[in-house]
Every structure is written in C-alpha cells, then in structure tokens.
Amino acid sequence: MLDDSSPVPHDPAQPQATPYRWHEHRSLDTWTWACAVALAADLRRELARRPRARLLLSGGTTPAPVYRALARAPLDWARVDVALVDERWLLPNDPDANAWLVRQHLLRDNAAAARFESLTQPGRTLEEAVAFANAHARQSAVAAVLGMGEDGHTASLFPGLPALDRVLASKQPYVAIDASGAPGARQWSKRISLTPVGLAYAQARFLLIQGKAKRETFRQAVASGDIKRWPVLIGMEGDVGLDVHWCP
C-alpha cells in the first residue's frame, strides 16, 4: 500500500522516460500539506540566495487549500512577490477573479505581508494590462503553480482556440486571449494568459490536480504529445521538469 508520507515519484502506468515527476497522495490533507511544504521549501531557498522571490499562481478551487496552508509558512513574506499565471478580464475584487481567490486564500496569516501583482485594475485597458504583465514577467520566478481542466487546458490556453498556434509561438510572456467557443472558458472569454515563454522564467513547475478524471486526462495528454489538443503539455516544455501532485 502507498504510504501517505512518501508519495511515489512516478506513475507506474507511464514510461520512465518522461519530463515529469508523479507524486501520488492518498488523501486531500496529505496532498495539501505536501504541496505547501514543497512550495515553501523553494521559496525559503530562493530567499536565502536573493533579496526577493517571485511566485506565479493559478486560480480555481483546486489549489485554494494549498494556498491556505502555504500562508502559514514562517517565511519572510515581505520579500515575496506573488503574480498570476492567468486572469479573467474581471476587476480584482470580483469573486470570480483569480486575484480574488489568491487574496482570500494566500494573502493572509504570515503571507499577508507578500506583495501582490494583480493583472487587472480599475481603469486599466486590456492592452495596458498585458503590457503591465510583460513589464514584470521577465524576472525569474521560483515556481509556477499550474492547474488543469478536464479538457486538458492550463492557464487560459484552451484546446481549439483559433489563435492557439500564435499564442504558443509568442515571444511575449503574457498575451490577451479570446476564448470564445471554448467550453472550458465558460462565460469568461476575454482573458490574459502566460505563454510558454513566460513559463520558461519559472525555476520549478507544479501541476496540482485531483480526482480520477483529471488523472486520466493527464495520462491521455502524455500519451498523445499533442500540445494543441492538450495545452497542459506546455508544463513539460524546456529544461525544467514538471512536478505533478495528485490525490483521489
């Protein structure tokens, strides 16, 4: 049987030569604290080496408990910059915005001292928001936390986007996204998203997923290798490995 305290490093159902490490946890609680401890360790190492550390976070309900656990870590949070992987075109105080989720679940307890970069602001146009994101994005990030939908999307990169080829080939870290027609985008078709170029600035990458359906989605994506059908595969591009943390 799998020991909660020792998540397996690789999914035995997959070939060994893969650019990711599979961490399997038997319970939500173990998954939550393992992810939080891993992120805190990366931040602690970075703060020991540099004046500041930068962290890129995704929205969604899945990572919320990890953010609440991470917020309790005894770090020098005043030297941590928190930014977003992507954002819906909503004001930061909108409950459906990723900025709102990060403020509610991470920027509390010890982490209340962190500096947060919201992609959207009142009075800021979409073009200005993308320019703001790109002005800050070329700083090295200690880690990027990614999520994945059951359709295989990550950030705001959805399969079937008409401009997905352009986005994947972009030389800018962030771009504006029109996700009209993508079911996973729901009513929020206008977005800002990190690109593979932007992700390349992260020294570590975490994919946080739960449930059998998402495990199967990830398995299909790896087996296919088609990044346009399964945009989550951007997490495995380049020289940085992807740490996938999964629980039932």
Structural descriptors:
7 helices; seven-stranded parallel beta sheet; three-stranded antiparallel beta sheet
Helix and strand pattern:
EHEHEEHEHEHEEHEHE
Percentage of residues in DSSP E strands: 15-25%
Helix percent band = 25-40%
Individual helix count = 7
Would you tell me the structural class of the helices and strands? alpha/beta
Describe the structure.
This protein is an alpha/beta fold and 248 residues long. It contains seven helices and ten strands. The strands form two sheets. Strands 1-10-9-6-2-3-5 form a seven-stranded parallel β-sheet, sandwiched between helices. The chain has a three-stranded antiparallel β-sheet with strand order 4-8-7. Helix 7 links the parallel strand 9 and strand 10. It starts with 19 loop residues before the first strand and ends with a strand. The N terminus is likely disordered.
Q: Can you describe this structure in just a few lines?
A:
The chain has seven helices and ten strands. By secondary structure, the protein is of the alpha/beta class.
Topology:
Elements: E1 20-24, H1 28-49, E2 53-57, H2 64-70, E3 80-84, E4 86-88, H3 98-105, E5 115-116, H4 126-137, E6 143-146, H5 164-169, E7 174-178, E8 190-194, H6 196-199, E9 205-210, H7 212-224, E10 242-247
